[in-house]
Amino acid sequence: MENKAPPTLGARFFRTDAGGEPVRDWLKDLPVVERKTIGKRTAQTVEEEKMKNPNIGSDFDDFLAQEGMLEEVTAVAVKRVIAWQIEQEMSAQKITKTAMAKKMRTSRASLNRLLDENDTSLTLTTLAGAAAALGRRIRLELAPV
Q1: Residue-wise over 79-115: b if at least 16 C-beta within 10 A, else e?
Q2: Domain assignments of the chain as residue spans, ordered by start
Q3: Distance, CA of 99 to CA of 133 (rounded, Å)
Q4: pLDDT tens, position by position, for the chain (145 residues)?
Q5: Topology (CATH level 3) of domain 68-133
Q6: Which residues of 60-71 are buried (b: 16+ CB within 10 A; e: fewer)?
Q7: How far is CA 107 from CA 27, 94, 113, 127, 134, in A?
Protein backbone atom coordinates (compact mmCIF):
# COMPACT_ATOMS: atom_id res chain seq x y z
CA MET A 1 0.00 0.00 0.00
CA GLU A 2 1.34 3.40 -0.98
CA ASN A 3 1.80 6.08 1.72
CA LYS A 4 0.62 9.44 0.51
CA ALA A 5 2.31 12.50 1.92
CA PRO A 6 -0.12 14.73 3.81
CA PRO A 7 -1.22 17.77 1.83
CA THR A 8 0.58 20.97 2.64
CA LEU A 9 -1.50 23.93 3.63
CA GLY A 10 -0.14 27.38 2.86
CA ALA A 11 -0.75 29.74 5.74
CA ARG A 12 0.02 33.34 6.54
CA PHE A 13 0.31 34.18 10.18
CA PHE A 14 -0.61 37.46 11.80
CA ARG A 15 2.49 39.62 12.04
CA THR A 16 2.90 42.45 14.52
CA ASP A 17 4.40 45.81 13.55
CA ALA A 18 7.63 44.63 15.20
CA GLY A 19 7.67 41.53 12.96
CA GLY A 20 6.67 38.96 15.58
CA GLU A 21 4.29 36.11 14.77
CA PRO A 22 2.53 35.27 18.06
CA VAL A 23 0.21 32.60 16.59
CA ARG A 24 3.13 30.78 14.98
CA ASP A 25 5.08 31.01 18.23
CA TRP A 26 2.09 29.62 20.16
CA LEU A 27 1.76 26.72 17.72
CA LYS A 28 5.46 25.92 17.97
CA ASP A 29 5.15 25.73 21.77
CA LEU A 30 2.38 23.08 21.57
CA PRO A 31 3.21 19.38 21.77
CA VAL A 32 3.63 17.70 18.37
CA VAL A 33 0.43 15.67 18.76
CA GLU A 34 -1.65 18.83 19.32
CA ARG A 35 0.00 20.62 16.38
CA LYS A 36 -0.83 17.69 14.09
CA THR A 37 -4.43 17.64 15.33
CA ILE A 38 -4.80 21.38 14.65
CA GLY A 39 -3.24 20.93 11.20
CA LYS A 40 -5.59 18.07 10.28
CA ARG A 41 -8.64 19.97 11.48
CA THR A 42 -7.57 23.11 9.61
CA ALA A 43 -6.99 21.15 6.39
CA GLN A 44 -10.37 19.43 6.81
CA THR A 45 -12.10 22.80 7.30
CA VAL A 46 -10.43 24.22 4.20
CA GLU A 47 -11.54 21.21 2.13
CA GLU A 48 -15.10 21.52 3.45
CA GLU A 49 -15.17 25.22 2.54
CA LYS A 50 -13.87 24.43 -0.96
CA MET A 51 -16.70 21.96 -1.42
CA LYS A 52 -19.25 24.60 -0.30
CA ASN A 53 -17.78 27.33 -2.49
CA PRO A 54 -16.16 26.20 -5.76
CA ASN A 55 -14.64 29.67 -6.29
CA ILE A 56 -12.18 29.35 -3.39
CA GLY A 57 -8.72 29.26 -4.89
CA SER A 58 -9.81 30.47 -8.34
CA ASP A 59 -9.08 33.91 -9.69
CA PHE A 60 -11.65 36.64 -10.15
CA ASP A 61 -11.69 36.31 -13.95
CA ASP A 62 -12.69 32.63 -13.56
CA PHE A 63 -15.56 33.67 -11.31
CA LEU A 64 -16.73 36.36 -13.74
CA ALA A 65 -16.54 33.94 -16.68
CA GLN A 66 -18.53 31.34 -14.74
CA GLU A 67 -21.19 33.96 -14.01
CA GLY A 68 -21.24 35.03 -17.68
CA MET A 69 -20.09 38.56 -16.81
CA LEU A 70 -16.42 38.62 -17.85
CA GLU A 71 -16.85 40.45 -21.18
CA GLU A 72 -19.22 43.06 -19.75
CA VAL A 73 -17.03 43.76 -16.71
CA THR A 74 -13.92 43.93 -18.90
CA ALA A 75 -15.62 46.41 -21.25
CA VAL A 76 -16.63 48.66 -18.35
CA ALA A 77 -13.12 48.48 -16.87
CA VAL A 78 -11.49 49.40 -20.19
CA LYS A 79 -13.96 52.26 -20.71
CA ARG A 80 -13.25 53.60 -17.20
CA VAL A 81 -9.54 53.67 -17.93
CA ILE A 82 -10.06 55.40 -21.29
CA ALA A 83 -12.43 58.00 -19.82
CA TRP A 84 -10.01 58.64 -16.95
CA GLN A 85 -7.04 59.05 -19.31
CA ILE A 86 -8.94 61.51 -21.51
CA GLU A 87 -10.09 63.52 -18.49
CA GLN A 88 -6.54 63.59 -17.09
CA GLU A 89 -5.13 64.83 -20.39
CA MET A 90 -7.89 67.44 -20.74
CA SER A 91 -7.07 68.65 -17.23
CA ALA A 92 -3.32 68.71 -17.91
CA GLN A 93 -3.89 70.77 -21.06
CA LYS A 94 -6.56 72.90 -19.32
CA ILE A 95 -9.16 72.04 -21.97
CA THR A 96 -12.81 72.46 -20.97
CA LYS A 97 -15.51 70.07 -22.12
CA THR A 98 -16.91 72.71 -24.43
CA ALA A 99 -13.50 73.35 -26.00
CA MET A 100 -12.84 69.62 -26.29
CA ALA A 101 -16.17 69.02 -28.05
CA LYS A 102 -15.36 71.85 -30.46
CA LYS A 103 -11.89 70.41 -31.20
CA MET A 104 -13.48 67.01 -31.83
CA ARG A 105 -16.18 68.61 -34.05
CA THR A 106 -18.88 66.94 -32.00
CA SER A 107 -21.55 67.87 -29.49
CA ARG A 108 -21.04 68.29 -25.77
CA ALA A 109 -23.53 65.41 -25.26
CA SER A 110 -21.36 63.14 -27.40
CA LEU A 111 -18.29 64.11 -25.37
CA ASN A 112 -20.20 63.41 -22.15
CA ARG A 113 -20.99 59.90 -23.45
CA LEU A 114 -17.29 59.44 -24.21
CA LEU A 115 -16.39 60.48 -20.67
CA ASP A 116 -19.17 58.43 -19.06
CA GLU A 117 -17.24 55.52 -17.59
CA ASN A 118 -20.29 53.24 -17.63
CA ASP A 119 -21.31 53.86 -21.26
CA THR A 120 -19.41 51.19 -23.19
CA SER A 121 -20.82 52.13 -26.61
CA LEU A 122 -17.58 53.82 -27.62
CA THR A 123 -16.61 53.82 -31.30
CA LEU A 124 -13.04 53.81 -32.51
CA THR A 125 -13.81 56.89 -34.60
CA THR A 126 -14.87 58.83 -31.49
CA LEU A 127 -11.85 57.60 -29.56
CA ALA A 128 -9.48 58.53 -32.40
CA GLY A 129 -11.09 61.98 -32.61
CA ALA A 130 -10.59 62.53 -28.88
CA ALA A 131 -6.97 61.42 -29.10
CA ALA A 132 -6.28 63.70 -32.06
CA ALA A 133 -7.93 66.64 -30.29
CA LEU A 134 -5.50 66.07 -27.41
CA GLY A 135 -2.47 65.67 -29.69
CA ARG A 136 -2.30 61.96 -28.89
CA ARG A 137 -2.76 58.71 -30.77
CA ILE A 138 -4.52 55.45 -29.95
CA ARG A 139 -2.60 52.25 -29.25
CA LEU A 140 -4.66 49.05 -28.99
CA GLU A 141 -3.48 45.46 -28.86
CA LEU A 142 -4.89 41.98 -28.41
CA ALA A 143 -3.31 40.25 -25.45
CA PRO A 144 -3.19 36.53 -24.75
CA VAL A 145 -5.77 35.23 -22.31
Answers
A1: beebbeebeebbeeeebeeeebbebbebeeeebeebb
A2: 22-52, 68-133
A3: 10
A4: 566 665 565 667 788 889 888 888 888 888 889 888 888 888 777 777 777 776 666 677 887 888 888 888 888 898 999 999 999 999 999 999 999 999 999 999 999 999 998 888 888 999 999 999 999 999 888 888 7
A5: 434 Repressor (Amino-terminal Domain) (1.10.260)
A6: eeeeeeeeeeee
A7: 67, 19, 10, 14, 16
- Helix-helix angle 32-52:22-29, to 10 degrees: 130
- In this prediction the pTM is 0.58
